[in-house]
Amino acid sequence: MAIDLNKTDVVIVGLGAVGGVGALPLARAGLDVIGLEAGSWLTPRDFAPDELRNNFRGWPQAAQKANTEIPTHRPNASAPYSPRFPIHPMMNGVGGTSLHYWAQSWRLNPWDFRVVSETTRRYGAARIPKGSTVEDWPFGLEELESYYDKVEHEVGVSGQAGNIGGTVDPRGNVFEGPRRRGYPMPPLRGTEFTDRMATAARKLGWQPFPGPAAVNSQTYDDRPACQYHGYCNRGGCHVSAKNSTAVSTIPKAMETKRLQVVTQAIATSVAVDERSGRVTGVNYVKGGVEYFQPADVVLLASYTYENVRLLLLSKSRAFPNGLANNAGQVGRHYMTHHTGNPVTALFPFELNNWYGLPAQGAAVDNWADDNFDHSGLDFIGGGNLWVYSDRRPIGAASMSTYGKAPTWGAGWKSFIKQNADRFNVAYLQKTTLPYEDNYLDLDPVAKDPMGFPVIRITADHKDNEKRLGAFIQDKMAQWFMEAGAIAVEKGPTGTMGPSTHAYGGTRMGDNRATNVVDQWGFAHEVPNLGILGASVMGTSGAHNPTLTAQALAWRTAEHLTGNWKAIAGG
To answer: Which residue of 233, 290, 300, 567 shows the fewest CB atoms closer than 10 Å?
Structure first.
């Protein structure tokens, strides 16, 4: 029998990158908020620069609920399952994956909000790939811009603006939509290698720029600047220069005395009033004891896979197929960022990439989104080209030999010794579209330690994404060769398994027949249930989802505070 707790105004499930942002405007508005987090508080002492621990053994090992519920995957409904990941790409902890992520903090470009209408206008409706369920967002960049701005300044983002109020600055991204002001901090410093790559891009007639990062380039909010020590990839920051929500928005929310954080709380279902169909609170387990946290409003912020899983597990007479799923849309329109088709390059000189961080680099958006003419091409969308400074011993030893040496033995060792700091791997984020046969559901066999089914991913990249991937590979290879590379290698597309860039499953839109939540992030079928995160996004764009998901979370929270009686009162 669950222990009933005192009622609160809002309960948030998950205090990571989005829940940790959404809590701040709620608390500042005077609402009492309880944040349920499956992980625990971590401190700088937990953030050792240790590649083996961080990148291969699932840091932090304590209370990693995520590693007990790794989604299964199959490319399609008739295909065998793919090998299951050894560790989950996400993590639990106050601050969530914003503790160990790369901290790239991109805005979406204007086209990403209007894929259907802009593609139709420019090329005709027939260019939308067959089988795609893509829809325009219910609003454009101009609506989300103020929320991007708020998050950039509350969290702390460094970067170089490319368009302030319509005035384009070539030092930044000339393709970005207009913003009201610049970033609160200048961009992270470049390196000799990223400067070389930027110069090569200009020779090609492209417009390179430093990428935005939720990492301090200077002292910000009493937190020091980045030390560029080289272990940021899947590692926490021991000086708190990486601006996770654990060191930015969550402490600010706690200062109001309105946010209570409950750690190691594993949410198991969302409760519903059978008569009204409204949610009444969240059931969770902590220390082997079951609790029920009643609330006027429930916000799910537990990442795409867990948002969908909680909804599908929360069955009732009112929602026999899962909460907010009477229209059968929970789990639909799923996609992950197309980051396959990698390109690596070998140079005849040292790159000095042992120091730095993945968010420190040079970007090119000339081939992103619809920034170039697709008239003679057989795909829509594009990719962001990104080169950065990041290298560690185990990763370096795993480098390709580019056909110039054997893959084992003395010859291999000699090659690695000479070339371990002479190669670079580009990070290529490309447009991904949702399709009818890409979806999430509950696995009929695989379960977590509590006996609940884990999420099953049924998804793969389609022809549009494969053609786009090959095109972007060619552009990246051209860039590397212009910068002096002596060899390049192109990798395969890969498939659509578990990812840190997972979208859809609870898509946002005005049409309740094809979307789970409305334009404000509240469920069409359950008016006091809000959903935060990339699971509400209908397109991926060619850039990381975190900042967009955080801006949407702030917008949902602000809408709730401005419409409290209508949403919470029934």
So the answer is: 290
Cα four-point dihedral sign 196, 200, 205, 208 = negative
Confidence band of 566 (pLDDT split at 50, 70, 90): very high
Question: 546-562 and 141-151 are packed helices; what angle lies between their axes, rounded to 10 degrees?
Answer: 100
- Helices 546-562 and 19-28 cross at an angle (nearest 10°) of 30
CA angle 60, 64, 65 (to 5 degrees): 165
Cβ 17 vs Cβ 24: under 8 Å: no
The pLDDT of residue 420: 94
Nearest 10 degrees: CA dihedral of 105, 113, 17, 218? 20
What residue has token string 């005035």? 167
Structure tokens at 52: 């083996």
CA angle 561–282–87, rounded 5-degree value: 105
| CA–CA separation, 15 and 33 (whole Å) | 11
Give φ, ψ of 168 to 5 degrees.
-85, 135
Q: 46: pLDDT confidence band, cut at 50, 70 and 90? A: confident
Side-chain-side CA neighbours of 33 within 13 Å: the count stands at 33
What is the 3-class SS of 27-39, one letter each residue? Answer: HHCCCCEEEECCC
Report the domain count for the chain.
1
For the chain, state the CA radius of gyration. Answer: 23
Q: Whole-structure pTM over 0.70, yes or no?
A: yes
CA distance readout (Å), 40 to 8, 12, 243: 21, 15, 18
The helix/strand/coil state of 303 is: helix
Its domain, for residue 334, covers 3-568
Burial class (CB in 10 A: 0-12, 13-18, 19+), 175: buried
Q: Where residue 365 sits, what CATH number does that domain have?
A: 3.50.50.60
**To which H or E segment does residue 425 belong?**
strand 423-425
